[in-house]
């Protein structure tokens, strides 16, 4: 087990919040801890995905140090992602170390996105270290369809994880990617099921990230189309609610639950983007849909001082673009070559 570093407060101007060229305050960082996953979801990665050599990944100590620097720069919400974060060796040590920032009040929320397959084993430990809310990716309630979409996943393991999270007092939001061929017809039932369990659910449009060995055109389903169908079934009341993510929320009056829509393709939400992302190799991307980045691993390993890390972070935040350039269409390749499993959700 690693020992968390004691990071001194950043002095003077270094402690000023991160602000991009459009005046957006960047206070939400998503950090991928691994590109590996125990599933191979059809819209996320190729069936025979090639993963990075482990030596290229940031160590747990480096991840702790980097996250602590971001917190010193005003990060209030930190999301740990993958790949599947719960399969990263030492992940709970990282969570335990970062929980000191929750205790001090410097960090408002520490959370993660998971596929849920290992959640039953770790939910209580996550809760013990201050994780109060997580996102669980789930695209269908049919075991056979789940196995097909994930290329081998077992739905019952996810359900056990949801039960364990509830028992530990962790709030769960379900993330569902809308897929025309795989789950379009069952989305209303998935919403009803989630609300019946007291869970929020967010629908997401598939994004052109990385090579998956297939044309995404057949998978893509506009959430404008989905919402129109749901409005013929239910009363959707818009909510004046802004979180640290890109979703727009409604209340489903008939179920009493909250439903979110993340629409990177049909309704660009970049004007309010307050997020940056770090890959498991230490590359900092100010935009999910652009290739501009900074190599923080090289800076981290150059020496123990954090001033060069701060300088590199501020330099790339100063280049954060106004919006992404996602497009899906016949014959179009992915917007960026790196898979979602490397950048993190």
* Count of helical regions: 10
Order of strands, widest sheet: 9-10-11-8-7-6-5-4-3-12-13-14
Proportion of helical residues: 25-40%
Distance between the termini: 27 Å
Largest beta-sheet details: 12 strands, mixed
Give the strand content.
15-25%
Mean pLDDT, rounded to whole units? 87
Secondary-structure element pattern, one letter each: EEEHEHEHEHHEHEHEEEEEEHHH
Q: Report Rg.
A: 19 Å
Shape verdict: globular
Low-confidence stretches: none
> Total strand count, please?
14
Q: What class would the helix/strand composition place it in?
A: alpha/beta
Describe this protein's structure.
The protein is an alpha/beta fold and 345 residues long. The protein has helices spanning 60-72, 91-104, 119-128, 143-150, 155-168, 187-196, 223-231, 296-300, 307-317, 340-343; strands at residues 18-19, 25-26, 28-32, 77-81, 109-114, 133-137, 171-178, 200-205, 236-238, 248-252, 257-262, 275-278, 283-285, 294-295. A hairpin with an 8-residue loop joins strand 13 and strand 14 (294-295). The mean pLDDT is 87.
What is the gist of this entry?
With 345 residues, this protein is of the alpha/beta class.
Set down the secondary structure blueprint.
Blueprint (H helix, E strand, L loop, with lengths): L17 E2 L5 E2 L1 E5 L27 H13 L4 E5 L9 H14 L4 E6 L4 H10 L4 E5 L5 H8 L4 H14 L2 E8 L8 H10 L3 E6 L17 H9 L4 E3 L9 E5 L4 E6 L12 E4 L4 E3 L8 E2 H5 L6 H11 L22 H4 L2
